[in-house]
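Table S5 (text form). Sequence records supplied for joint modeling of the three-component complex.
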Amino acid sequence: MPDLLDWTDVSDADWNACLARARQHRQAHRSPSAYTDAARGKSLGLVFYNSSLRTRTSMELAAVQLGAHPTVIDVGHGVWGFEWERGVVMDGGKAEHVTEAVGVLARYYDALGVRVFATLTDRLADEQDAHLKTFAAISSVPVINLESAKFHPCQALADAATLTDRFGGNVKGKRLLLTWAPHPKPLPQAVPNSALLMATRLGMDVRLAHPKGAPLGADIVAQAEAYAQQHGASFEIVHDVDAAYDDVDVVYAKAWATPLVYTDYDADETFRQTHANWTVTTDKMARTNDAAFMHCLPVRRGVVVEDAVLDGPCAIHLDQAEYRLHAQKAILEWVWGLRV
Amino acid sequence: MPDLLDWTDVSDADWNACLARARQHRQAHRSPSAYTDAARGKSLGLVFYNSSLRTRTSMELAAVQLGAHPTVIDVGHGVWGFEWERGVVMDGGKAEHVTEAVGVLARYYDALGVRVFATLTDRLADEQDAHLKTFAAISSVPVINLESAKFHPCQALADAATLTDRFGGNVKGKRLLLTWAPHPKPLPQAVPNSALLMATRLGMDVRLAHPKGAPLGADIVAQAEAYAQQHGASFEIVHDVDAAYDDVDVVYAKAWATPLVYTDYDADETFRQTHANWTVTTDKMARTNDAAFMHCLPVRRGVVVEDAVLDGPCAIHLDQAEYRLHAQKAILEWVWGLRV
Amino acid sequence: MPDLLDWTDVSDADWNACLARARQHRQAHRSPSAYTDAARGKSLGLVFYNSSLRTRTSMELAAVQLGAHPTVIDVGHGVWGFEWERGVVMDGGKAEHVTEAVGVLARYYDALGVRVFATLTDRLADEQDAHLKTFAAISSVPVINLESAKFHPCQALADAATLTDRFGGNVKGKRLLLTWAPHPKPLPQAVPNSALLMATRLGMDVRLAHPKGAPLGADIVAQAEAYAQQHGASFEIVHDVDAAYDDVDVVYAKAWATPLVYTDYDADETFRQTHANWTVTTDKMARTNDAAFMHCLPVRRGVVVEDAVLDGPCAIHLDQAEYRLHAQKAILEWVWGLRV
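The corresponding structure-token record, covering 1020 residues in total, follows.
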């Protein structure tokens, strides 16, 4: 049975099948057919190293609606913290090694989800998605990435389905702007990475906009270019905060830290403060083709985006969030081989 | 489908139906008929801003015993804290606005419970039950108040059923004393408010006793007077800590803060310390008509009430607590339109 | 219906029946017959005063796989802390007395589990297992010990089943070494107590090894001697850290504090540091009869045991951990009278 660490590991056939299945689940939402016993007897362990509202609740309900049993495990809240390094003499504050923790959970559960964000201090570990890969290497049951240093595949599938519904089933030829946004804190790049790869893989015409000095990883950009080429679609990177909005059909906003964060935390903070003019505003949205506004949530109102945009008719952030439930049902069916 | 923010919003017919149904659920407790599939496929999100033992467990079991799936969400424990104010630039410690948090949860769950206590610092917000009302205004699914600044309707229904059982189905003509009690901390008035309205709505003869300077809200008292008049029952407010107990059939004790708490925290504390003689004692209970002793729990032994009262044969606080389970099954059936 | 505070309270017939049933559950693991509705409608409240990974997840799944509903209650995480002493004036930080907390939970749930570790500060309370016994005395439903000051019966049954499987159903004549190990923190003796009583009750030849000055309780040792005598098996206590390993078939390692911890915390720490040579190593394991290595987890790698032992072919700590699930299903069936 497969892991879902990132969609880049997954064939087009399976990606498209999961996308189609997610859309079926949305059609069934709150109808009797939303609840099946397809996964009766199975259990899902959800390990969180970081906070969550949507992921924990939507993944829990996804499991329940398939007849499976979910457990949310908050590391550090009533559960011992884990040591991740191999070969360490564990005489400090960490009571348990991830080898035993995951080894045991894999004996109990039929799949494990894990959320472990980028460290923003260990660049190599973040670039290699080291914590996620360590976790997956230990587990003898499928592992689902609930947001790692580099990827957020559950969000990506939900976003893909939201966009596909938005444009009546066909997003080809539609233009998506993925724009950097200000934020009081340095944030990882998992969501923009996954959004970029998702949109280019869907064959949308994609514009990535960010201030110079806030690039996404070179490997991510290269993969996005490859997806765009594969679909005969366009992909460009721009730095003009206003012109970026011209004629797009979708604005996807997200804050992320610059690479400065690894070497000079204060310089990254200054960079973010200096580019406060990247907030998504009604003025900027007026340049678009009546674009949908997307955000993965949680969102800082008045910082990432003006209230008027979020509260306006084009905002589809709640649709994205709702689709997490449907997408994750499709993902669970896929990792457990329950595809109907 | 209705919210349950407070019973004052609910018709007599529905209040009485819920009361009757709660009593049926108690009859079925631990029998096979306690467990139904009436709410199969439904889910209940329980959002706690404040601690809870009874409410979280009894509401969870109430949902489960109807076949629904409950999730307990502890804000601040693995879940981001919420910003409640509109129009704020969210550049501080709050990562998510209640608009998005509740908006998303309402997409997932079929009802939401919320516990959000009085601030005891913002008098206007507390008097208007502002947090509860904000939460309910955002939610597109029914909201159940798990104790707000002003009301605790789950406790009220459980108490009403406990009293009705206690007196063989008819509480008319029975006298209930609701008495203020000392406490080391300032506590909100939600429970005494709800207890007072519950008892007067049942048509009991009600005596509210508190030291001068520790009144309940004028709107609450006015509503209690109206209920008493509607039932041809008596309602009085007294300040004699001993005479208050004369000839009553029920003593309901509860600590609450004085209005001083909003303007002079220390003065409220001094007030509470000064009135330490309001502890419920066996001596005071001896003045009653062998009265039942009630408390919503948690209770400070030796401060609110002497051990001998709590451990004696007249104490029915555990019956009240048990009834939370039965009452909340009735409430869930009501908000979901499952009345049998 | 019985409590499970410790197996010493339980007849040989019931102990053996639970052991046999645990082994049946392991055979059924991940097959359709692993999931029954034998406990449909029942609920299990799991109260944790201390951290847990295995116990909370395996007990939750044990309940679910029998059709029952589990709730994990972390005292101090969204739940008020409890006062344990009788006759106290509760004017401090504790909002609720254990009398009410357990009294209420017993009204809701059909059994309660409780984890409450040794204090390591109150010797008398620890020796009497006072917190566990207080909890059990209050509860009107069966109480299952999830690790108390003195015993860890869930671990003991899992270990007994793991050993029985390891030796093809018959452990008689097999030699088990239970060895003290170093640790950066003082740990309670519940696990070594239960492991010692388990192995001697199985009729294994048991060697208990620890530095002079780190004894287990005299009552525990006396009970172990009685079990050994009952089975015509050997039991010895040794202090030679190397010779202890000679010719044994099983090495069970565990760190525990010395009695010094109650009177001189620093002296206990010094004792543990002085005996760092008690780490389980490949050199020591080479003296054994190709022994299985056991540990209850969590384990400090490089302190309690070398990585090479834990990662080697003889380590069966994950089997022990998995057996927690199966053993606890047998325990729940037993306390609920569901023995098939």
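Note: Chain B has two domains: 7-151+324-335, 155-320.
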